[in-house]
Amino acid sequence: MQKVIHIAYLILVLDITSLFAQFSITPYLAKRLGFDTIWFGYLQTTVGIIQLLGGPVFGRFADLHGARAALTLSSLSSAVYFVILGCATNVPLLFISKLPAVFMHGMPGSVQMVVTDLTEPGNRASALGRLGLCFGVGMIMGSSLGGSLSTRYGESFAAFVAAAGSLLNAALVVKFIPAHTKKRAETDSATDKNPEVGAGAVFSLSEITRLMRCPGAGEMFTIKIISGLPSVVFQVMFSVIAMNFFHLKAEQTGYLLSYFGLVQMVIQGGVIGRLTGKYSERTLLLLSIGTASIVGLAQALMTNVQEFCVVVIPMMFSLCMFNVITDTILTKSVPSSDTGTMLGLCSSVQALLRTVGPTIGGFLYQNYGVLSFGYIQCAVNLLLFLYLLKSNFRKTEEHQS
Question: Is 127's pLDDT higher than 80?
Answer without folding.
Answer: no
